[in-house]
Amino acid sequence: MCNLVDDPAQLDKIHDINAAQFSAAQPEQCTDTPMKFETLTRIGFLALLAVIFVMANLPGNDAPSVFSYDKLNHMLAFFVLSVGATIAWPRANPLVAVALLSIYGGAIELSQWVMNLGRQADWRDLAANSVAIALGMIAGYTFNVIRRRIGRRRKT
After folding, report:
1. What is the largest CA-CA distance in the chain?
2. What global pTM score does this model have?
């Protein structure tokens, strides 16, 4: 267990144990610390990859949509995905990220073509995905810059 109290005397009062037992039982390193922001965004990003893949391959009438125009749904999904990727891996090479997300979009279109569940592969979907990836990378990069500046201000 990881305790947020640094002073063994305070911990003694809180947990009704003596300071000697605390120091003897204290692990060298805290194992249940809160997850880092980047770890959470990486988990969220991977979950989003799975959700988008499943939603994109649902039969035509079952696929949920936010907008009536299909390309806007593609753009929303890939915008959020690329923002998430940029935030989860802030030091990643943006060209590699764009390439990987574009390949992922192509894989979705290929799976729609192969599975033949009432969805159709469309080059215009890839174009919409690409525009959204570029815009999402810009938005994610901007978020990272602002987050770093706020972090620097808090340290000073």
Report:
1. 69
2. 0.72
SS (H, E, C) the chain: CCCCCCCHHHHHHHHCCCHHHHHHHCCCCCCCCCCCHHHHHHHHHHHHHHHHHHHHCCCCCCCCCCCCCHHHHHHHHHHHHHHHHHHHCCCCCHHHHHHHHHHHHHHHHHHHHHHCCCCCCCHHHHHHHHHHHHHHHHHHHHHHHHHHHHHHHHHC
In degrees, rounded to 5, the angle at the alpha carbon of residue 142 between the alpha carbons of residues 79 and 136 is 10
In this prediction, residue 19 has a pLDDT band, given cuts at 50, 70 and 90, of very low
Residue pLDDT, tens place only, 44-96: 999 999 999 999 888 877 777 788 888 999 999 999 999 999 999 999 999 99
**Residue type (1 letter), 40:** L
What average pLDDT is seen over the chain? 82
Amino acid in position 97: A
